[in-house]
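Encode chain A's predicted structure.
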Amino acid sequence: MSEQKTEIFIKKTTHANFADIKPLLSYLYHWEKTIPNNVYLRQPNGNLWTEYTWKQVAEQVRRMASALKAMGVKKGDNIGIVSKNCSHWIMADLAIMMVGGVSVPFYPTLDAEKINQVLTHSDCKVLFVGKLDDWKGMKDGIPADVHKISMLPSSSEKDCNTKWDDLCAKHLPMQENYIPDVHDLFTIIYTSGTTGMPKGVMHTYYTVATPIKAAAGVLKVGANTDKYFSYLPLCHIAERAIVEAASLYSGGSVSFVETLDSFKDNLAAVQPTHFLAVPRIWTKFQQGILGKMPQKKLDLFLKIPILSGIVKNKIKKGLGLSKAKVVLTGAAPMPPSLITWFQKLGITIQEAYGMTENAGCCTLMRTDNIRIGTVGSTYPNCELKISPVDGEILTRAEWIMVGYYKEPEITAKTVDAEGWLHTGDMGLIDGEGCLKITGRVKDQFKTSKGEFVVPSPIESKFADNSNIEQICLVGRGLGQPLALAVLSELGMKESQETIKASLVSTLKQVNTNANNWEKVCKIVIVKTAWSIENGMLTPTLKIKRNVLEDVYGTRLEGWENQKGNDVIWE
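Encoded structure for chain A:
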């Protein structure tokens, strides 16, 4: 493979507290030698689990590293991974490290157009292909000169150049314990790209390893008895940090989910010590519990001392959290009422805040200082401040990204000359140093699934419907965005049946070809028009999105969850 020509500026300063940072690959060598027969990776298949010990993982990785070298992969070459979470995902990543390559993970849900966009931009010449739901809809976007390695028996096998098992059988294990320099480029993580071309966030071994060391104490990471449960995309920084990096650091085991349908059973079987979920999953957990035990009955049981303990333990075991010592939520704002609800069950959920650009590591709510409505205080050796200009959250730490791949100008706008990362989020810091996120500097928002939605392009698609005067897309913390709308004078003259038919038709058009997380689930017709006088419009007649979210915020989730109504009247 040819060497990359892209100019990459990597800072090589090292904080005294992190002078002994080791690349993640070093831990594989350590555990391979010290606990070779401990199980590291666990892959479910129905009720059976395929288990790989540290020794077995290392052998697979060493054989694949030999195969990559035989293909001509050189230090600094970018190598892609596209797959749902599985044991071979982590083994592929380790093999890439072992040859000095740079891993470039992609979302397994990308279509042909989007996979082509990021593969081309990232200069990947080799692509590991694993578990995918729609290989047929993706494969045509992969450039012909990309060498495809099939990691598992799957629908992609016949379209790939080689197979994992065949390559491992053909090549002897690499004997050298190659150790990358901590300032070598480790990975390029592409953002979701809802603002156009996804940006490739570059992290070195140093910027990935330092937050794990900094956060190990507060996240209780470090025992080889730790159990991690992997189901959120490994191509996302949160899962990469709290599952892959933390498991390598601690020597603990990683168990994967088989399918969405088996999620509940897999989680209950594993009983992990560390668990991260987005708010939407916590809501589903709550609904599942209340489906079996109505709130009134639950409240009654929790008031009876002996019975209360029995009920709490049964619920925690049923969820798969009976052994959890760290329970996290992130990627989107968590409703305070939901945190309080789980607290009553003896489940303390710690809200965390971070982004790809700071390795997902900025603030964490501590168990001894639960301040609901905030995302906690900073990790050790992390700085935080609020811009006096626009209220933007700025953060600085040893683990800030080294830049966006091939985008020096955007990098300079995001990380200033003093090393402060401009997050794009707005916030406040309270008297105890806890951060409260109040919105976005720009109008984009995250759903509870952790995906960014850009409202304006979607809102503009409603313009052809003459029954609508004003439209505002909201959805921060919801599963899907919904549209708040004010009827035009023409619309107010029509019957509800006519309006509904018209808006349902528009809604179908708007959602055609939209990304799944951008599909509008409901249109809510509000009673009061938005005006300058009532504070909902600026003097230039722009909608104050944050104001609308405050006014309607308590009712949004209820509207989203209404069954059978695409159009709702306030």
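Confidence is low (pLDDT under 50) at residues 1-14.
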